[in-house]
TrEMBL record, chain B:
GO MF annotation terms: fibroblast growth factor binding
Pfam families: FIBP
InterPro entries given in the database record: FIBP (IPR008614)
Protein name in UniProt: FGF1 intracellular binding protein
Gene source species: Equus asinus
GO annotations of cellular component type: nucleus
Domain of life: Eukaryota
Biological process annotations from GO: platelet aggregation
Length: 999, 335
């Protein structure tokens, strides 16, 4: 009996009218945990009941504490008929189970009903008393901290990074049980919400157990997903990286200032790569290399050939039911080989992190990915989900072998996803092959390495680019040169990765969002035939997507992609591919060659002319982009032995680069010069490609976008942030759909969506859209749904320009920048009486004014949680940090799942009105939970699922949304540091606060 | 390719002031887009018409969802669904409750009933304000009226507390509510030259001096209803014109005081009896509801127009009236 849960129901407000006669409500509350239920008294005839209940006490196992949500139901008492439910609140009490997080959950929660949405609010206080036998964890894993953030959380230090943990649980989907035919939609939705809540609790607990087994105390980069497999069940799966974290005693060491989140790690990487062990130090996150390891396609041919799991050829090296990294113990290895073998002993040397402590990442080999097409069958025994485990194990094995082929022993930035249509499911996994520094994987003292690192004064920002594989035995054709930075090691000509840009990387100019978009029609088919058709299409799609990415990258004059995410979505009659990444120019890599167009029929005069016209356009675009993104690398052509002999004649054709697919015929290499990338226009398809290349419009001036955490070249973020979700669904006209028409539609959809975002956020200029995350789904035959979540951050243009200099100066500069900012803030406050001030600073200030206010309110509120105070501001961001602020405490993970359904779609404003309201409600519920935990922001926020189904004929629609993130407390840097030194600022802020409260 | 669904939801709800104005003015999405195009926004931002359409729709949807909350502004402050900075909340409320001068002049003093609501069509045609906007303004008047009627305490304070309006706007609403409650006629042709501001000024003075609240501050409806006793007492003024001696004395007092100070002295002297009779008659009739309604019509007919026909400057009118009422206090029976 290791825990006592205590709940108090304080009051309600804004309740709906449940009794038409009196226009009032007789409300009472049921509090349920596990199988125990308590009730409050009925508070008669009020829309703002004050129950002020006693403490309801539940004595429960800690296992239950982890699995079960607290369920609060508000009802309207009815003497003559059944009591009507007003709505429910589910509270995840997990954050109360570890010591450093929240100690109490207290606040106003929206009362949610799956049919009516939010109906008033309820004030609840929840506490947990844990008894002191926490040593005997048997089934529970209380105390293990979870973070969605894919880097080491700001106020912690990684002592050991143990490695990959994964787990999945399955169950029948209540929506598909027989009982669903006789129960109300509400009951069905609630059963589903509750089940998923239970399953995520269980999943988290099981993962926690694995972490404890590995002797870790936290999971970082925790990603949990649902697969709604329909008839065959419901799968909840999660992956993460087990770590041992230490809380930093003096958080001052970390300055998450206004620029990059990981400023603190600007150490220099070591350039000499071969002995990773010797330099324990290295700068932050060296990423390495190259990419278009297009190895994945190889895998398809085998693996996806049949949907039947048993056929897969992947060697099953005695993996159990998929528990990862069993051997989390310390590895002592002084040589690379040893390291490698040590890592190899782990079942899967995978890391879900995308940013790393200094010195962790030694080299990057390139992107590795694997996909597999499976036919879903009913899960017969939910307690032993072997099939699903085996499927994933197979894919992971695939990934591991790809990484090995690249000379890497680990995979970082690892993620998994699925796409399901009817009974076909595509499982995908991708990551970046890498060589890691073993120091972090064992019980060594990190202190030692840190010191050591400072002494090594090696050229910065290129180590991770150096190839990890043997250049004589390259896994794929690549064009190697000596590193343009250190001149000692070889680097590839292009580098693709799934991780964030390492903070120490030397980047020239700014980056930009690059997307490849692709659709392929597919015949409708059943079962095996369908799976085979999809398997056959996949390699082509992957290849095309890759080609597009490469072309667009060249067109931007850049040479590396970060944060690459390729999503393949399956529908009834088509496949969609969407790849997003952030392109940058890495100083260590060679200048990309241009793109050259070659016609197939050189004799035709007008054709030639056309070609040369196109060529000119392309060249102009490249030149324009270079200017736009400020890419002007030092011109030093004759470097010591720059072009490496072997790959000399390697002019590469777009269409010939994948080594793996035999189907693709090698094209004639004779066109084109050494460096140029040749586009052969041999048919209309190719023409289309070229056109689509040129039709991508750059963002309007003042806007930048990227899908990584931060934008290289921009350092001076202001605190004005706006997180948003935008959803679009288009209906294709079903007549004569061709691949081209489909591509165009899809392309337009994405481009228009981006344009709309730029327009909507124009008041934030100069601004950067960060962490732009596109998700594509195909809800029905002719529908394409695109969901985008991102955060817009305003930056200070003037300062940003200055700070793009060499990163060596960064630290100095940062200090001075900070000062400038501090100074600037009060000054601007005074000047902001001119509302029409055309310059960004004024704008930034107005916002600044409101946010301190908000926090002011928040503080008041937490001090005295009185019912009438204004609602505290809760920020949400997909990033792991908050610009201009310091995260002082992590309160726990937020992981919420909601269903909303309507049978009066028209009355609720049609599909747009319905979904708009629902998403706003989801945000509200997330904010309310964070505020109740005592937090004022959610970081690493992600909308993992947004499944929307409509039936306009029946006036019905249903939507499922799953979101997660880390609840945190942050403090403005200006508040922390300025108050003492900067009188004006100190004066201004309280003034604002006062003003606010009166409104 | 048709767009089925198109939404944008920010953690902080985006409010575009220009679009909000168009929405408040009752334009349809199509008209609003056309107006925005005309404003040159496409050229400034390089956006396309489709983007503008989508943006406008989105804002309209947001406003539509917020409208329910705007009906009870304190709810907007306490709700959790839309995160809106307080300054923006204030703007939303203030603009929502703002009204057009042309419109308010049409309904000022009318009963805020269904019947009047039916006439909004005509008002819309007459004023050029869209019907939608007329409805919103009318409903605002009615809503404020319903909430504050039968409430204790100062009318302005009550309005401010329940609708969170600025001081100025709350005063305007107090005037509107006061006029609607007493049904003062303001629509006659003769009164057309008076602005809403003129009436609001009168309303404020009447609330201060003529209502129950002016005497006793803790009664229901105190600022809305005229003090019946006070009106009854006004009957006593009749003596000022009925008693010839008193009338002469009053006149001589006023004339003595104003001699040399008034540009229109001779006209005043000649007209004193008529003016005094007019004013006193208006005052003594106020015990009848019908005459209360016609207060402004009568004042204009009996006093303003005679003055105007003699070209009295405003300063002279003010001097005269001050002296006229001050002198009464030195008359027997008024001391």
């Amino acid at each position: 009996m290791p825990g006592k849960l205590k709940v108090k129901i304080v009051a309600g407000r804004h309740l709906p009218v449940m009794d038409r006669a009196s226009d009032l409500t007789d409300a009472f509350v049921e509090v349920k945990f596990g199988n125990t239920t308590f009730k409050t008294d009925v508070y008669p005839k009020s829309l703002n009941p004050q129950w002020n209940s006693e403490w309801f006490k539940f004595e429960v196992d800690d296992e239950d504490l982890q699995d079960e949500p607290l369920q609060i139901t508000v009802l309207d008492h009815d003497t003559y008929s059944a009591n009507d439910a007003i709505g429910k609140v589910y509270i995840d009490i997990d954050p109360l189970l570890y010591s450093e997080a929240a100690t109490v959950i207290s606040g106003w929660f929206p009362i949610y009903d799956t049919i009516h949405g939010i109906r008033g609010e309820i004030n609840v206080v929840v506490k947990v008393d844990l008894f002191n036998d926490l040593n005997r964890f048997r089934q529970s894993s209380c105390g293990v901290k979870f973070f969605c953030t894919t880097s080491i959380p700001k106020c912690y230090r990684a002592v050991i990074i143990h490695g990959f943990v994964e787990e999945l649980v399955v169950n029948e989907d209540p929506e598909y049980q027989w009982i669903d035919r006789i129960r109300t939609p509400r009951a069905s939705n609630e059963a589903r919400q509750r089940l998923i809540s239970l399953m995520s609790g269980e999943l988290q607990r099981k993962i926690g157990l694995k972490v404890l087994e590995m002797r870790g105390n936290a999971v970082v980069g925790y990603l949990q997903c649902f697969d709604l497999e329909g008839e065959s069940g419901l799968v909840v799966r999660a992956i993460g990286t087990a770590c041992t974290l230490d809380k930093l005693s003096s958080p001052a060491a970390f300055l998450p200032a206004c620029n990059s989140p990981s400023k603190e790690m600007k150490e220099i990487p070591f350039n000499e790569d071969p002995n990773p062990n010797t330099h324990s130090s290295g700068p932050s996150t060296p990423l390495k290399n190259q990419t278009y390891s297009f190895s994945p396609s190889k895998s398809y041919s085998r693996q996806s050939s049949s949907s039947d799991t048993d056929l897969s050829l992947t060697p099953k090296t005695g993996m159990g039911s998929g528990s990862a990294g069993k051997e989390g113990g310390p590895f002592k290895a002084l040589l690379r080989q040893q390291t490698q073998s040590a890592l190899e002993q782990r079942e899967f040397p995978f890391f879900t992190l995308t940013a790393f402590p200094p010195g962790f990442l030694v080299h990057v080999g390139g992107v590795v990915s694997a996909r597999s097409v499976k036919l879903l069958d009913r899960i017969h025994n939910p307690d032993e989900p072997e099939t699903r485990d085996a499927w994933w194990a197979e894919i992971r094995q695939e990934i591991k072998s790809h990484a090995k082929a690249l000379g890497c022993h680990a995979v970082v930035g690892y993620s998994e996803s699925t796409s399901i249509c009817e009974e076909v499911c595509i499982l995908s996994a991708s990551g970046t092959a890498a060589v890691l520094n073993p120091r972090f994987l064992q019980d060594g003292t990190v202190e030692g390495c840190l010191e050591q690192r400072l002494e090594e004064n090696l050229p910065a920002g290129c180590g991770f680019c150096h190839i990890p594989y043997d250049e004589l035995n390259m896994p794929f054709p690549a064009h190697l040169t000596y590193c343009y930075n250190c001149r000692k090691q070889k680097v590839p000509d292009v580098l693709f990765t799934t991780i964030d840009l390492p903070t120490d990387a030397t980047v020239i100019g700014k980056g930009c969002l690059i997307q490849a978009r692709l659709c392929r029609l597919k015949k409708k088919a059943q079962a095996e035939a369908n799976a085979t058709a999809i398997s056959n299409l996949l390699p082509f799609m992957e290849y095309e997507v890759h080609t597009q990415l490469m072309n667009k990258l060249k067109l931007k004059g850049m040479n590396a992609l970060f944060g690459l995410r390729i999503q393949i979505t399956v529908g009834e009659n088509m496949l969609m591919g969407l790849a997003s990444a952030t392109g940058v120019y890495l100083a260590a890599l060679p200048t990309p060659g241009g793109i050259q167009i070659a016609g197939k029929t050189p004799n035709d005069g007008s054709y030639e002319q056309h070609i040369s016209h196109m060529q000119k356009k392309i060249n102009d675009t490249i030149a324009k982009n270079k200017e736009l993104y400020e890419i002007n690398p030092p011109i030093s052509e004759e470097i010591i032995g720059s072009p490496i002999p072997e790959p000399r004649q390697r002019s590469r054709l777009l269409r010939s680069q994948s080594e793996s697919s035999d189907e693709v015929t090698e094209l004639d290499l004779s066109h084109g010069k050494k460096d140029a990338f040749v586009l052969e226009i041999d048919d209309t398809d190719a023409m289309e490609d070229v056109h689509s290349l040129l039709t991508d419009v750059p963002p309007p001036s003042g806007f930048y976008s990227c899908n990584t955490e931060i934008m290289p070249g921009i350092n001076n973020w202001t605190s004005e942030i706006q997180m948003f979700t935008s959803v679009r669904v288009i209906r294709l006209s079903s007549l004569n759909l061709t691949n081209q028409a489909l591509n165009k539609n899809f392309n337009d959809l994405c481009e228009n969506l981006l344009k709309s975002l730029y327009f909507k956020l124009r008041s934030m200029i100069p601004c950067c859209l960060c962490h732009v995350n596109f998700t594509v789904s195909l809800p029905e035959d002719e529908l394409i749904q695109v969901t985008v979540t991102a955060v817009a951050i305003t930056f200070d243009k003037n300062q940003a320009l200055q700070t793009t200099k060499a990163h060596v100066e960064k630290s100095l500069q940062r200090a001075s920048t900070d000062n400038e900012e501090l100074l600037q803030f009060p000054l601007e406050l005074c000047s902001d009486s001119l509302p029409s001030h055309p310059f960004p600073p004024a704008k930034a200030v107005t916002v600044e004014k409101t946010s301190p206010m908000g926090e002011g309110n928040f503080r008041n509120r937490s001090a005295a949680p009185c019912a009438n105070s204004t609602v505290g501001v809760v920020k949400m961001t997909p990033l792991s940090f908050i610009p201009g602020a310091k995260i002082t405490k992590y309160l726990g993970i937020i992981n919420m799942f909601f269903i909303r359904e309507t049978t009066s779609l028209r009355e609720e404003g049609g599909v747009s009105g319905f979904l708009h309201a629902f998403i706003a409600e989801v945000f509200a519920m997330v904010r309310a939970h964070v505020a109740a935990l005592g937090g004022n922001a959610v970081v690493s926020y992600i909308m993992k699922q947004c499944v929307f189904m409509e039936n306009p004929n029946k006036n019905q629609a249903q939507c499922l949304i799953n979101v997660s993130g880390d609840a945190v407390v942050f403090a403005r840097e200006s508040e922390l540091e300025v108050v003492s030194t900067q009188q004006p600022a100190a004066n201004c802020q309280p003034a604002c606060t006062g003003g606010e409260v009166t409104t | 390719m048709t767009s089925e669904l198109d939404i944008f939801v920010g953690n902080t709800t985006l409010i575009d002031e220009d679009v909000y104005r168009l929405w408040l003015d009752g334009y349809s999405v199509g008209d609003a887009v056309a107006l925005r195009v005309r404003s040159g926004i496409l050229e400034q931002t390089g956006a396309t018409a489709a983007v503008l359409q989508s943006d406008t729709m989105d804002h309209y949807r947001t406003f539509h969802m917020l409208e329910r909350l705007l009906h009870a502004p304190p709810k907007l402050l306490h709700q959790l669904i839309y995160q809106i900075p307080p300054s923006r909340q204030a703007l939303l409320i203030e603009r929502y409750y703002a009204f057009d001068e042309a419109f308010v002049r049409e309904v000022l003093g009318k009963k805020l009933s269904k019947g009047t609501k039916k006439d909004l069509d005509d008002i819309s045609t007459k004023t050029g304000i869209t019907l939608k906007s007329c409805r919103r303004q009318f409903d605002n008047f009615k809503r404020v009226f319903k909430v504050v009627e039968e409430m204790r305490g100062s009318l302005v304070d009550n309005i401010q507390q329940h609708f969170l309006l600025s001081d100025r706007l709350a005063r305007d609403y107090a005037a509107i509510v006061f006029f609607a409650n007493n049904r003062f006629e303001t629509g006659k042709k003769k009164l057309q030259y008076l602005s809403f501001g003129d009436f609001a000024f009168c309303a404020e003075l009447m609330i201060q001096n003529w209502t129950l609240g002016a005497v006793d501050s803790q009664v229901d409806d105190m600022d809305m209803d005229l003090d019946k006793e006070f009106l009854q007492d006004l009957k006593e003024l009749k003596v000022l014109v009925a008693d010839k001696d008193l009338l002469d004395l009053h006149k001589s007092l006023v004339c003595t005081a104003l001699r040399g100070k008034l540009g229109v002295f001779s006209e005043m002297e000649a007209n004193f009896k008529n003016l005094s009779r007019g004013l006193v008659n208006v005052a003594t009739k106020l015990t009848h509801n019908k005459d209360v309604r016609d207060l402004f019509v009568d004042l204009v007919e009996k006093f303003v127009e005679p003055c105007r026909s003699d070209h009295w400057p405003l300063s002279d009118v003010r001097l005269f009236l001050n002296q006229y009422s001050a002198s009464v206090h030195s008359l027997d029976g008024f001391r």
